[in-house]
Fold this protein.
Amino acid sequence: MATPDLNAMTGLELMRWVQTERPTDIPSIGRLVGMRFDEVEHGRVVVSLDTRPPTPTGRRSSPRAPSSTPAAAPPRPRARCGTTRAS
């Protein structure tokens, strides 16, 4: 099936198209995380995600990641934000 002109669609039309067609030839974050549009109405969208068990690093596994992918490095400590007072 040919992909319609996505630029000509309204946001509602685009979400309804994704809901019904579930395109696999278009890269999207929704496909990466297993997102589904359960309900699409004007002013309301219900989205579901499939959860996955965490990897040894504590991160969720990706459905597209091959099993031979090396484990990601643990997250770096975050810098503390705040103000300092001059003496």
Summary: The beta strands are 35-41, 44-49. The longest helix spans residues 11-21. The chain has a mean pLDDT of 75. The radius of gyration is 20 Å.
